[in-house]
Amino acid sequence: MHNDSSYRIGGAQFTLNGTHYKLVANEGRNMLHGGLRGFSDVVWKVKKYKNEGGVSTIVFAYHSFDGEDSNLYIFKNILLYKV
């Protein structure tokens, strides 16, 4: 699975528009890729499951909130698998 929050923040802190933010350090003193807990470590909801013509489809959803694990934004994630 791919996470689009791919970044490294030196010292796990930064200042933006006069506001100083301290983040969770997870790579030595730095923050890498969005905090301590990745999308593989959260519980996703099954939004839809279908099995038609020998093809199984499942849709998962996860809504992360602003401030979750030092993230400064909200994610509404959808993951679709077809087998």
Automatic annotation (TrEMBL):
<protein>
    <submittedName>
        <fullName>Uncharacterized protein</fullName>
    </submittedName>
</protein>
